[in-house]
Write a structure and sequence with these properties.
Blueprint (H helix, E strand, L loop, with lengths): L3 H7 L4 H23 L1 H27 L1
Helix pairs in contact: 1-2, 2-3
């Protein structure tokens, strides 16, 4: 099993790593968002969370390469 840290680093360039992160954490992330802002807003924010994870992991990978 790949560590969460490694998946985060890899998900900007590896769709399978992003998929593994989503599979591991989607239920917890969604439940948190529902508690925080309600079901309607959680649906939209849930997508935004994973987009930000992907974007952020790409920036982290680029910074580590330099």
């Amino acid at each position: 099993m790949t560590s969460d840290d490694q998946l985060i680093l890899d998900c900007g360039r590896d769709p399978e790593a992003l998929g593994a992160l989503i599979e591991r954490f989607s239920a917890r992330v969604y439940a948190f968002l529902v508690r925080l802002c309600g079901r309607d807003a959680a649906d939209d924010l849930f997508q935004e969370v994973w987009l930000k994870v992907r974007e952020g992991s790409g920036a982290t990978a680029r910074a580590g390469a330099g």
